[in-house]
Amino acid sequence: MNDPAYPPSSAVIKSTSLAELWDDFSKVPVIERSWPTAENLSALHALKSIDKKRADDLTSRVEFGLSFSNLPIFAVAGPKNAGKSSFISAFLSPAGRERIPRGLKSTLGTQRFTVWLPQSWESDADLLEHISNTLADVFGHAAEPLSYIAEEAIHQQTLTHAIEKPLIAFDTSLEEQNFAFIDCPDIDSAAGNTPENNARLRMLTKAGEICVGVMLVVERSKIQVDLIPVIERHLPQCTQVYAINMVRDEVPHEVLKDWVQEYERNPEHCYVAFDYEVGGYRERTPSIDPNLVSNAVNTRKLPFFFEVSPEPEMNLPNAVTFDRSIVKIGARFDPDTLRQKRQQEQLTEIKTNLENSVGYIEAETVECADAVGRAATLLFRACKDMLTHDGQAVITPDLKSLENIADSLKRTAPKDFKPWIWMFGGGFRLLKKAIEKKDEIKKWLRGRKGHLEKVQIDSLAPDNLCESLAGWSAACGLARVAESWKEDAIDVFNRFNREHKTTLAAAEWDVLTKQMWDHAPKWKQRMAVVLGMVAGLLAIASALLDFLGGHGLFTLTYAKLISLLGIGGNIVGPGMVVQEREALIKKLTLQNVSNFFAITADRVGVPRNVPRSFENEFPQPIVVEKPNRDAYGLVDRHWQLARPISKNVNSLRSAINLFKP
Fold this sequence. Notes:
Blueprint: H1 18-27, E1 29-35, E2 39-42, H2 43-50, H3 52-66, E3 73-77, H4 84-89, H5 94-98, E4 114-118, H6 125-139, E5 144-145, H7 150-157, E6 167-171, E7 180-183, H8 199-208, E8 213-219, H9 227-233, E9 240-247, H10 252-263, E10 269-274, H11 281-284, E11 306-307, H12 335-386, E12 388-389, E13 392-393, H13 399-412, H14 418-423, H15 425-432, H16 438-446, E14 458-460, H17 462-475, H18 486-499, H19 506-518, H20 526-547, E15 553-555, H21 558-564, H22 578-604, H23 632-636, E16 641-644, H24 646-658
Helix pairs in contact: 2-3, 2-12, 3-12, 12-17, 12-22, 12-24, 13-19, 13-20, 15-20, 16-20, 17-18, 18-22
């Protein structure tokens, strides 16, 4: 993204609200990318290119923070079999309680997130639409209405494979509360303690985004379990209510003291309920406990949660007043205060996420550039090794280059060799139409006994590149087996055969062929010298013709080329200017390596320029760039070459630091 409103060297950021800060985060360029495309990236765009999931999560969090729900909702959560369903039931009407699944078996417990709302909200179309849209945004699925028929409602809540599809329910008794509930499925440590390996924790984190606080239901005998802090970490911290269930032969203030010692904090809202299944219950529970009334409308017993006082005498049965019952907790909370506390907590979390994201982008950009540089260097070295024989870079001859050599030999031949050039002109002419004259070339060679009939030239096949790429990918940290590189290797060889031409201009060939004549063996008859040159060229052409149609490459060193022409191993003599000689040999040999590397780099996804450690020796590639969008480096590794725009990074970081939630 190249936004002209934010030139990369002069962005001044003064954000006073989350909306302005997010706009800057989304638009101000903080990264200058040079490969695979040249563009300036905002922090958000850069984060997407590095870690799309992290960018999407941050975007969702900010967008939710910008449109924070006006609804005060508490998440009701807890470990397995803590009595959470019974806790929820205390707030519902008798009919609502019948729709709550209760039981110790996993199949009887709540398996889905159920949002319980006041009955009057169901008839408010605008409010209901807002709630439905919010739930869909958070959970990723539209909410399903909870049936008013008890059996159907229980079936809906106990479906084991629908955890990501929330339920929405209404109840008349919630009218007197100042908030709504999300009944969360039991959290089981057997599934793991992180959202990555525990689907319920993952969904619990999402549910927590729309909640102003949490009500954590815990069995008394399990307040020391490690799962409780895990659950807390995935839910809002601003307003927390603890409900300790199934207290037996203990006094409430000792339970509270035990909690404080275990978690090293004094809970602002702590409630306990005695276990009505054990003896002595009637003597311990408050006298206002509905379970003590024999003619209760609902004979189905529920735990009676009441607020614990640190003063022992205030927890005696006759000292507990009804305003300390859990069902009266709504009177203690002001909805606006709940929302403000939660929104401030969310904005603080967003600020921290933005700060961490800027640092992450900066570090990953530098680290990625280093990784790309190492990958390119390793790949160039692999290509260089493939195109090097006996310490010398090789030529990859084609029929056109052989024809150019023949034409140059005829132009630079000394006068006393001209007659023999004319005599063997038929052999030279065969090179002009080598493909059509393949059989004649072989016949010509067979007729010259004692001269080259067939020449052995080294070759490279796609399998060689597959093995090299397998080793290269392993060295880069994400190995792919050789067989998986087959299609890439064939494409590289085909492109190289089509696009790379090992040739020189006519005048450049003339410099080299003149040296060949100057250093031709003097003791040989002139005819034998010319015949040897023609035979060598035709033998190489014959070998190439046999190879046409395959995916591989023929390779030979310049020294071997001279030898095959009957000149011997002396490539160039002292009469050639050193600089000119080196330039021509580089065009013939080292350019092969650079071009082969560039084509391979295009295919596998690394920058195609010759790496810095080799650029003094090798020329830059001259084949046209053809990027592969599905390349290993782009898709599997997300590689890019970029650098932070320091001034803008520092300006954005300063704006985030100055932002006040």
